[in-house]
Amino acid sequence: MAGKQARARDRKQRILEAAADVFAQRGYGDAGVDEIATAAGTSKGGLYFHFSGKEALLIALLDHTSGLLMSRVRAALDEQEEPVDRAAAALLTLLHTLGKHRSLARVFAVEALGAGPKLNRRILELQRSFEAIIEEQLDEAVARGAIAPLETRITAQAWVGILHAVLMRWLLDPQARPMDELFPVLRRLLLQSVGLSVDRPTEIAGTIR
Q1: CA distances from 57 to 18, 68, 98, 118, 168 (A)
Q2: Is 191 helix (H, G, I), strand (E, B) or coil?
Q3: Is this structure's pTM higher than 0.90?
Q4: How confident is the model over 8-55, as pLDDT tens digits?
Q5: In angstroms, how far is CA 37 from the centroid of its own chain?
Q6: CB neighbours of 178 closer than 8 A, spacing ≥ 6?
Q7: Is the dihedral of CA 188, 189, 192, 194 positive or negative?
C-alpha cells in the first residue's frame, strides 16, 4: 500500500513539473492536457485522476510555488536582525528563488495573469500575502525609530511591484542581466526608498541561497 501511494505521489509531482514546463513553453492558452500527460510520461486518464483539468493544474502549481516561496522567505527573515533588512531579504529571496526555477517563475508571473478572473484573484491573494510580510517589517522599523514614518502599506506594494517588474524583464528579455547581478542594485534601491544609507554593513545578498 505504501509503495502504491509513493508511486501516486511521484506521478502527481511529475505531472506538475511537466505542466510547469509546457505552460512556460507553450503558454497556458495553447497548452493541451494531452501534451502535458505525454511530457509527464502518463496517460490522459492518469492526469485526470489527480487533476480535473488545466485550471486545476495551474492552481496546484501556484500553491506549490507559493509554498516554496513562503518557506524560503521565512528562513531569510530568521537570518536578519533589523526589520528593514528582513523586509529587503524577503523580497530578494523571492527573486532569487524564482530565478532558480524559471518555468515556475514564468507560470507564476506571466501565464497565471492571463488565465482568467479566478486565477487572477488567486495571484492577487498571494501578492497580498507577500506585501503583508514586507509591511509588517516596515511597521516594526518605524516603531523602533529605525526609519522615518511612512506609508508602509504603499511602500510594501511598491517594493513587490519593483520585484515583479524586474522578474518580468528577466523572463521576457533575452538581453536581461543575470539575476545574481541585480541583488546589490535592488538592495540599494530598496534601502534608499526608505531613507537609509546604501553603505549599511549588512550584506543581505550574501545570505540568499
Answers
A1: 10, 16, 19, 13, 22
A2: helix
A3: no
A4: 788 888 998 898 888 888 888 888 899 999 999 988 898 899 998 888
A5: 25
A6: none
A7: negative
More confident residue, 94 or 4: 94
Q: Which three cell numbers stand for residue 5?
A: 501511494
Torsion sign (Cα): 66, 69, 75, 76: negative
- Alpha-carbon distances, residue 101 vs 45, 69, 97, 176, 205 (angstroms): 28, 11, 7, 16, 18
C-alpha to C-alpha distance for 124 and 102, rounded to whole angstroms: 20
Q: Count Cβ atoms within 10 A of the Cβ of residue 85 and give its class: 0-12 exposed, 13-18 middle, 19 or more buried.
A: buried
Q: Check pLDDT > 60 for residue 147.
A: yes
Region for residue 41 given its phi and psi (left: phi exceeds 0; alpha: psi -120 to 50; beta: otherwise): left
Decide if pLDDT at 1 tops 60. no
Q: Is-contact 78 191, C-beta < 8 A?
A: no
